[in-house]
Write a structure and sequence with these properties.
heterodimer; A: alpha+beta; PmbA/TldD fold; B: 473 residues; 23% helix; 36% strand; globular
Chain lengths: 487, 473
């Protein structure tokens, strides 16, 4: 594939590009699902293509093509330069890239079992077994399951001499049980809602998730919600399970720290950020217990934000975001690093595929676990009166990332250190920094999970990206609960 | 760009490679380009060419799909092999119907014989315009420059996009269906940023001549200027005047439920409610791909022609849309007497899928006495004018309670006039309640937002809209 990249680099340089990089990408995916005892979808997809990103006349141009003939590749490179020159008609200053030593490297996601080698019959058998367990519970009116496998192989070559061959593999699985009764639709999901758990690893994830073993409990909870009481409204101490906290991190830490948002580049679509540059190293983001990192390195875990190199050839890094409650860092790129006084990119530029421009994306933005041993049950036992909320059902946050509201699938009222009743429709809302400053307990490492969010949307044209979020169950004091249902 | 003849040739090659009982190939792709600007400068500028084939094969009631964007012989052989391998290991699906033939696929649209409120409709207006297909990076840069000049003249900062697309969809099957649709689409969206306020406008059309970058920029700039120094007013129930983008973004969240499969799955808020009066007398909604302000292809994921379907008439939910197999299942289900007319309407997704179908060409009917936004404001003692909503999500599915934020131009109305900008609100509002409390509507227009698909919708004046919280800006 390197010869394809070189055709493009040569033409881009000849046409006047001062910088160019080329990505040649082959993607493969498999999606299997069932619904109420039948296969819902069964599909394989393959997509191959290349793109050229250039700077010419001090401005960006980008063009992509599925056609990999020499003529098509060279035309695509020429088009990228033409586009860059058009961009230069409306520019204020030339693009500046932070220096990066060009790397020649190979990198592959570590895995034990290639999911594409596991037979479709076995996978469908697993999904139908889960489905059967879910629907064996009286009152379940809809059962859905899914398995997803993705592989992306990329060759990255730049005019600076980088030459990186990288293969990423991800696996995802989950299910949901619905119950319709008395004009009410209740739902429970496992291990997480909206597609389950996703990680950058092989089929070994499927066994680790204990999917079948949890199906009956999940279905019983879905049915049980009909007879439960409405979650009370008011100010409560709340405990969030790790999956809900993962999404809370994604929305109220991960997005506001994207430097392109902060600089106004996403103002028309995803929005801006309350984290203006003056807040770096001055804002008390959370309580002293809050330590958040953006870590793309394999040693952080097999998150959807784990890789060897980002899509402009910068090696994976760990960036401190919040340290003992103080806001310490943004997600940056080669183009934006200088705006925060850095002389190197944070290595977060990624693209959905061969036909998309890489942009700043979350890597694995994780809340580090508490240092003192603390289990979820111990945390509940130390709570006088509160609501324990599990599994996201709805999520919404304003376009500067201040005001949020989350709904969960199920809640449990805690009194005197014990779960006393199940409650339906739990929701909570607040202002980002007030919320993180109310955190007073985080469970320890053995309760910590690196969750995958496979569906993060950003950019125009919109790109969907996978991100990782490590979290352990945590407690927040005096949070507004239930305003979603206040009429 | 791939054309119908080339697609037909590819289909013939695939058909020869397959040993399946039935073969279907769906084609999609085109040329797309987008110029993105922020901080009064172009910062991203992209273009792509792509074409994808998606091959569905059937063996004795078993079906599956594989897709590729490679058309050489080996790649076609591989995609057929993948589709067949997946299909052969499926369990037979007793609900899977034979693929439609050309007569079945086209007849329903022409005869309108499958439901009392579905009827024959005019031919599809042309949605392909050379002027849009021929937009160059330089032309897009000129459009952006106009917007930037408006921003600079008003001491504002602007961000947005100017995109152009030339796209196709086609479907061929081994029983003779051969449908093809090509269209163009141009889109401009711009946000104007002031120190403590925003303004926004967006429009799209198959014909770029219908877009006016200057006007869109001037409206957005006025909103940013007029909403400067926003006041915090308390959350509560207000008369809300929703501009079309706000209307489409919020109502779009209910149309997944206007589907036969959603009724079968009991995940629709219309379960047990079809035939009842759910909304106000002034709400009439159709799905009509042939409406002159609509866009999109006139056939569905099996090649069935899309039919005009009256979903809501004077507040009464009349029916939902159906893919072929869903219609057959509902006819033999416990719901058959509770859902109005049951017939394939040409709204199915590509098979196999879990969701069935959905109406995607929504048109709100014009009321007898439409009111302009200015007239709505003049008749409002105290209320809130909303330019657009953001991050809308479903909180409670059967009551259809949605949450979300206002954004990019939220104004307080006092004594029939806009008195200034206000900090943005969070809402928690039931769509059933909202569409039962629409006091006035404008003439519907083609509109686009960010949370739902494009529609033909009016502005609405809604009483007792439930704003529950206020944010910091």
């Amino acid at each position: 594939m390197k010869h394809i990249a070189n055709w493009a680099l040569n033409v881009a340089t000849l046409r006047g590009a001062s910088y160019a990089d080329v990505r040649v990408i082959s993607q493969r995916s498999r999606a299997l699902s069932t619904k109420n005892g039948k296969v819902g979808s069964a599909s394989d997809a393959e997509s191959v293509g290349m793109n050229v990103r250039v700077i010419a006349d001090g401005a960006w141009g980008f063009a992509a093509s599925a056609e990999l003939s020499r003529a098509a590749v060279e035309a695509t490179a020429a088009r990228a330069v033409e586009i860059a020159k058009a961009s230069a008609r409306v520019k204020k200053e030339d693009i500046r890239l932070a220096p990066e030593k060009p790397v020649v490297a190979e990198w592959t996601t570590p895995y034990k079992i290639d999911p594409f080698t596991v037979s479709v019959e076995k996978n469908i058998g697993l999904l139908l077994k889960i489905d059967d367990e879910l629907r064996s519970v009286a009152g379940i009116t809809l059962a859905e399951t899914n398995l997803n496998f993705n592989r992306e192989e990329q060759w990255f070559v730049s005019s600076e001499g980088a030459d990186i061959h990288q293969t990423k593999l991800s696996t995802g699985a989950g299910y949901a049980a619905y119950s319709f009764a008395e004009n009410e639709i209740s739902k429970r999901s496992y291990p997480n809602s909206y597609g389950g758990q996703w990680q950058n690893k092989g089929y070994e994830l499927i066994d680790e998730l204990k999917l079948v073993e949890n199906a009956r409990r999940i279905a019983e909870e879905a049915v049980g919600l009909h007879k439960s009481d409405q979650c009370p409204e008011g100010k409560f101490d709340i405990i969030l399970d790790s999956s809900q906290l993962g999404l809370q991190i994604h929305e109220s830490v991960g997005h506001p720290i994207e430097l392109d948002r902060v600089l106004g580049m996403e103002a028309n679509f995803a929005g801006t950020s309350f984290l203006t540059l003056d807040k770096l190293r001055t804002l008390r983001y959370g309580s002293d217990l809050v330590n958040v990192v953006a870590d793309a390195r394999q040693e952080h875990g097999p998150g959807l934000g784990t890789f060897g190199f980002d899509d402009e050839g910068v090696p994976a890094q760990c960036t401190p975001i919040i340290t003992n409650g103080l806001f310490m860092g943004y997600l940056s790129s080669r183009e934006s690093a200088h705006t925060i006084g850095e002389n190197r990119s944070g290595g977060t530029l990624r693209a959905e595929g061969w036909n998309r421009l890489p942009m700043i994306r979350m890597t694995n933005v994780s809340l580090l676990p508490g240092e003192k041993p603390l289990s979820l049950e111990q945390l509940i036992a130390s709570t006088d009166h509160g609501i324990f909320m599990q599994t996201n059902r709805s999520w919404s946050i304003d376009d500067k990332r201040y005001n949020f509201q989350f709904g969960c699938e199920i809640g449990w009222e805690i009194k005197n250190g014990k779960r006393v009743r199940m409650v339906k429709n739990p929701s909570y809302s607040g202002i980002t920094t007030e919320f993180w400053n109310s955190l007073d307990a985080i469970c320890s490492r053995d309760e910590w999970t690196l969750w995958g969010t496979p569906n993060c949307g950003k950019g125009q044209p919109q790109q969907v990206m996978g991100t990782g979020h490590g979290a352990a169950p945590s407690r927040f004091r005096g949070i507004k609960v239930g305003s979603a249902f206040k009429s | 760009m791939l054309n119908r003849e080339q697609a037909g040739d590819i289909f013939d090659r695939i058909r020869k490679l397959s040993s399946a009982d039935e073969v279907e190939v769906f084609f999609s792709g085109g040329r797309f380009a987008l110029t993105r600007f922020a901080n009064n400068t172009i910062h991203q500028n992209v273009a792509e060419d792509n074409a994808v084939i998606s091959v569905r094969t059937v063996f004795g009631g078993r079906t599956a799909r594989a897709s590729s964007n490679r058309f050489d012989d080996e790649s076609l052989r591989q995609v057929v092999r993948s589709s067949e391998s997946l299909a052969k290991v499926q369990h037979p699906d007793p609900d899977l119907l034979p693929m439609p033939d050309a007569r079945e696929a086209q007849a329903d649209a022409d005869n309108g014989n499958a439901g009392e409120s579905a009827r024959a409709t005019p031919a599809l207006p042309s949605r392909y315009f050379e002027a849009t297909a021929n937009i160059t990076p330089e032309l897009r840069a000129e459009g952006v420059a106009k917007i930037v000049r408006v921003a600079e003249k008003n001491k504002l900062t602007t961000a947005g996009v100017f995109s152009s697309a030339e796209s196709f969809e086609g479907i061929f099957n081994s029983r003779g269906v051969a449908e093809w649709h090509a269209q163009t689409l141009a889109e401009i969206s711009n946000t104007m940023l002031a120190p403590d306020s925003f303004g926004w406008q967006k429009a799209n059309s198959p014909n770029v001549a219908n877009l006016d970058a200057q006007t869109l920029a001037e409206i957005a700039a006025k909103k940013a200027i007029d909403s400067a120094h926003p006041r915090e007013v308390p959350a509560g129930k207000y008369t809300a005047i929703l501009e079309p983008a706000a209307v489409l973004d919020i109502v779009g969240f209910m149309f997944w439920d206007y589907a036969g499969m959603a009724i079968l799955d009991q995940r629709s808020f219309l379960t047990g409610r079809i035939g009842t009066k759910l909304f106000g007398d002034n709400i009439t909604i159709t799905d009509d791909v042939r409406h002159p302000l609509q866009a999109g292809s006139p056939f569905d994921g099996e090649g069935m022609r899309r039919r005009r379907v009256e979903l809501v008439e004077n507040g009464v939910v009349k029916r939902v849309v159906y893919a072929r197999a869903t219609a057959a299942r509902v006819k033999s289900s416990e719901f058959r007497d509770k859902v109005g007319p049951i017939a394939a309407t040409g709204h199915g997704f590509l098979l196999p899928n879990e969701m069935g179908e959905m109406p995607v060409n929504i048109v709100f009917a014009t009321v007898d006495n439409p009111r302009s936004v200015e007239q709505m404001i003049a008749s409002t003692e105290r209320g809130v004018l909303v330019t657009r909503f953001w991050y809308i999500r479903e909180v409670e599915p059967f009551g259809k309670i949605l949450t979300g934020m206002t954004r990019d131009g939220t104004f307080l109305i006092e004594n029939g006039k806009i008195s200034g900008g206000v900090r943005n609100f969070r809402f928690n509002e039931s769509l059933i309640h909202m569409l039962s409390n629409v006091e006035a509507m404008s003439v519907p227009v083609r509109s686009c937002g960010e949370e739902s698909f494009d529609m033909v919708v009016p502005s609405m004046k809604v009483n007792d809209f439930n704003f529950t919280e206020v944010t910091k800006f």
